[in-house]
Amino acid sequence: MLDNFFKVNMPYGMMRNADGAWFTFNREYMPLGWNKADQKSRESAPVVYVKYPGLTDQRILSIVPDLKYVQRDPTGQIERFYLYTNSVFPFRSEDNWNTYMKALQRLADYKVK
User: Fold this and answer.
1) Is 54 among the domain residues?
2) How many domains is the chain built from?
C-alpha cells in the first residue's frame, strides 16, 4: 500500500504498449492517483495510453539517470522505464530530487499525438 502523496500521485515510470503508446504509472504500477488499498485490482483502474511521437529510445536514454532504469522487449526496444528506484528515492537527498525533477521537465516537453 502506498503511504504518501508522492507515491500515489507522482510518476514512477512509463510503459509502452504494442501500438507504441505510453502509460504513466505510480509506485504501485497503477494509474496516477490510484492506490491498491483503495481499489480492488489493477484491472479496474482506468489505464490510459498516450502517444508521444518524439519519445524515442534514444531520448528516453537521455532522460533516465542510468541504464538500470530501462527494460527492453525481446527486439531490444524500450518497453518500460523508471524515473527513480528505492535506492535513489527523490526525498532521500536534494540531488535525488533534482535528478527526478529534471527527468519530469524533459518529459513535459513532449507533445501528445
Assistant:
1) yes
2) 1
Q: Which residue has the cell 513535459?
A: 108
Residues in contact with 72: Cβ distance below 8 Å, sequence separation at least 6, in sequence order: 78, 79
Cα of 93 vs its chain's centroid, Å: 20
Residue 113 lies in a domain: no
Predicted TM-score (pTM) of the model is 0.88
Cβ-based neighbours of 94, under 8 Å, separated by 6 or more: none
Range of the domain at 34: 5-108
In the block, residue with C-alpha cell 537521455: 62
Q: How does pLDDT run across 74-100, given as a tens digit for each residue?
A: 999 999 999 998 888 898 899 999 999
Buried b / exposed e along 28-55 (16+ C-beta atoms within 10 A): bebbeebbbeeeeeeeebeeeeeebeeb
Phi, psi of 19 (to 5 degrees): -90, 0
